[in-house]
Amino acid sequence: MAADRLNYAGFWRRLVAFMVDTVIYSLVLVAGAHLLGAVESLPWQFDVFAYALALSYYALCECSQWQGTIGKRIYRLRVTGLDGGRLNIGQALRRN
User: Fold this and answer.
1) What is the residue-wise DSSP string for 59-91?
2) For helices 43-63 and 11-36, what crossing angle results, to 10°?
3) What is the C-alpha separation between 32 and 45, in angstroms, rounded?
4) Which of 10, 34, 46, 72 could serve as 77's disulfide partner, Cβ 3.0–4.6 Å?
5) What's the longest Cα–Cα distance across the chain?
């Protein structure tokens, strides 16, 4: 797909996709925190875990064959490079 033929998603579709991803991320984060007991005993380590989880979720999903997170997939959005192609892991990490 040529870059000049890309259709960019509007604000509202992006926002709703982000909200879906936030719910999914939050559920996984809360479940993981309770399993590890990390919230009360390891506050700064929990923050590092939460950041790493978010970075991993977004970057890995966006460089996968899906080219986006679950929320983006539901709303048929794809994350692409400037050429319209799939991102590699380095590009996805830098963007996030």
Assistant:
1) HHHHHSTT-S-HHHHHTT-----TTSSPPPHHH
2) 130
3) 13
4) 72
5) 52
pLDDT value of residue 5:
66
Beta carbons of 51 and 44 less than 8 angstroms apart: no
Q: Which residues contact 58 (CB under 8 A, 6 or more apart)?
A: 21, 69, 92, 96
Which residue in 71, 89, 70 sits closest to 81, CA to CA?
Answer: 89
- Write the DSSP string, 32-44: HHHHHTHHHH-HH
Tokens 């390891």 -> residue? 42
Checking if the pLDDT of 80 tops 50, the result is yes
pLDDT score at 1: 47
Q: Is 30 helix (H, G, I), strand (E, B) or coil?
A: helix
pLDDT of 38 higher than 70:
no
Chain mean pLDDT for the chain: 86
How confident is the model at residue 78, as a pLDDT?
92
